[in-house]
User: Which sequence fits this backbone?
């Protein structure tokens, strides 16, 4: 099922259970598949129109009044457009606002460069008291919602709205917001991945396996705070790593892991990420190839470290 | 203490706070003294012993640089010890330059990045409506602050959602950091703008008159269906002659010990 539909279904459940939950969006209720919620809970769903700054600060006001606002817009407008509102109204004021950024990085596809955020994780990660989460599939998203609700702080969630990806088995997936998910155990190289790059990393795992290289695939769904224990334990074993993310190479997961490793256990680390470029229109397959966010790039970087 | 005496005391405390530290946002603190005095003494429901009491009325001072005025009022009402006032902006203080809800008892929202507090106030007014707790939500914005686009985003949302529990003040003192508002980037005609954005508007000719502020607030209590903007024509630096005389240069001023003593002498004379 599309991620946005999973999200709407889970939100419906938590809104039924918890009257403090309110939803605010900036003229994207239809795009986010939230229209049913607006009909079912008209008193707790608000549309500010095309006014994201106002949305962020209104959410902070509602949070200060005891509500738990979930706010929605596209990733660039959920982050770079409203940096200061997130910093001051939400984080500095210690307000519990859940920010959902739709269509991170190349998943903005035909909306193109203006809507394609390659810097959003860097922006949010550099502010104190923030949490950054990106589910890689619908199961993770489904399992995360209650934890996001109960998490007593601001959290930024990147959602590939129309993504229809299944990585995990619902009956066999233990999800903890604060713990990275080890998908494949390995001993030769660590591959840290997040969001849409998890699928690519798993393809790379098979290619590397055929070359007798044992890769450890770890999904870093929560980019801040990092599960440093799991990451360090993996690189202490493999002594090298590739980081794959749908984001600029500056400021995102690659940066975060390099920071952690540099201070605690320096090893060679390579990236599969956007080469400090802006976005453009195109379908997902074209954009993956153009920005080299592919299985092949992961394999190439892994081989360069292993050999 | 009557309102006039209360305002004099607040002015003495403001100059003491800023004069002790040596520099601070004096002009825009002095311009809102009467607004604060009338709000807290005649209208707002609050409990200094329980600053976060549910259902209380709230005040969001969106022009957060007027912190020294708000702190003086809160201290005089017993939210915290008056000795705190002399710690303004000193390392480790609970009274920072701009209002901080996590540091100062009685501050209802962290403000200072202009425009944001007003949106927060709108969110709070919405929250109060959702809870049906009949609280009144008050907010004060600056005239320079009204140049922020976010003010107008919030004003549309407030009127669209008929937040008639929201009563705002525009502290129209006519000056901003770089000069007169009408020279930098005029917000005139201010009242017409608010009317056009769907608000009740009450104009106060002299926003440094407690009687006129009280009349406006009395009327604002009974207006329905729309949020209310009280456009208060104030004087930046009002009540302390040398500050008032500094005009557009009084947004943030150095205050010497001599000036502090001189100001206190003058205010004491006014008291007599």
Assistant:
């Amino acid at each position: 099922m599309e991620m946005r539909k999973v999200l709407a279904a889970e939100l419906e459940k938590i809104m039924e259970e918890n009257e403090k939950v309110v939803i605010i969006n900036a003229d994207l209720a239809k795009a986010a598949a939230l229209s049913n919620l607006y009909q079912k809970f008209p008193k707790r769903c608000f549309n500010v129109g095309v006014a994201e700054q106002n949305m962020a600060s209104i959410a902070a006001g509602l949070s200060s009044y005891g509500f738990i606002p979930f706010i929605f817009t596209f990733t660039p407008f959920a982050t770079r457009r409203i940096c200061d509102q997130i910093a001051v109204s939400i984080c500095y004021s210690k307000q519990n606002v859940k920010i959902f950024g739709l269509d991170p990085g190349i998943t903005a596809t035909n909306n193109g460069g203006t809507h394609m955020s390659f810097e959003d994780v860097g922006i949010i990660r550099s502010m104190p008291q923030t949490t950054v989460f990106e589910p890689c599939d619908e199961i993770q998203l489904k399992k995360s919602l209650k934890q996001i609700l109960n998490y007593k702080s601001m959290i930024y969630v990147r959602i590939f709205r129309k993504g229809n990806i299944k990585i995990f088995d619902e009956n066999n997936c233990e999800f903890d917001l604060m713990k990275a998910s080890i998908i494949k155990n390995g001993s030769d190289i660590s591959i840290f991945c997040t969001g849409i790059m998890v699928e690519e990393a798993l393809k790379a795992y098979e290619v590397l396996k055929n070359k007798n290289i044992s890769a450890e695939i770890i999904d870093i769904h929560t980019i801040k705070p990092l599960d440093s224990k799991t990451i360090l334990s993996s690189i202490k074993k493999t002594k090298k790593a590739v980081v794959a993310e749908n984001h600029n190479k500056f400021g995102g997961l690659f940066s975060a892991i390099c920071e952690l490793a540099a201070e605690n256990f320096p090893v060679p680390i390579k990236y599969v990420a956007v080469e400090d470029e802006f976005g453009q229109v195109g379908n997902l397959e074209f954009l993956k190839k153009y920005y080299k966010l592919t299985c092949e790039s992961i394999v190439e970087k892994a081989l360069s470290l292993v050999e | 203490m009557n309102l006039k005496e209360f305002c004099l005391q607040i002015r003495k405390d403001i100059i003491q706070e800023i004069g002790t530290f040596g520099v601070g946002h004096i002009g825009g603190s002095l311009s809102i003294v009467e607004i604060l005095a009338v709000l807290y003494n005649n209208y707002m429901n609050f409990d200094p012993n329980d600053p976060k009491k549910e259902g209380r009325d709230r005040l969001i001072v969106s022009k957060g640089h007027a912190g020294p005025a708000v702190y003086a009022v809160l201290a005089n009402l017993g939210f915290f010890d008056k000795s705190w006032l002399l710690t303004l902006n000193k390392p480790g203080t609970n009274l920072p330059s701009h209002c901080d809800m996590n540091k100062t008892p009685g501050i209802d929202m962290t403000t200072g990045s202009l425009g944001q507090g007003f949106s927060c106030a709108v969110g709070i007014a919405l929250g109060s409506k959702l809870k049906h707790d009949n609280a009144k939500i008050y907010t004060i914005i600056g005239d320079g602050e009204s140049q922020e686009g976010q003010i107008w985003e919030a004003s549309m949302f407030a009127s669209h959602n008929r937040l008639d529990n929201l009563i705002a003040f525009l502290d129209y003192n006519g000056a901003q950091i770089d000069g007169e508002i009408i020279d930098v980037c005029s917000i005139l005609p201010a009242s017409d703008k608010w009317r056009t954005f769907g608000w009740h508007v009450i104009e106060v000719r002299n926003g440094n008159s407690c009687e006129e502020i009280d009349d406006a607030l009395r009327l604002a209590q009974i207006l329905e269906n729309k949020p209310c903007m009280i456009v208060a024509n104030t004087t930046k630096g009002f009540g302390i002659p040398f500050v008032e005389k500094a005009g557009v240069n009084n947004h943030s001023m150095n205050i010497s010990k001599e000036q502090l003593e001189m100001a206190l002498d003058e205010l004491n004379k006014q008291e007599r």
Remarks:
- Chain B has one domain: 3-271.
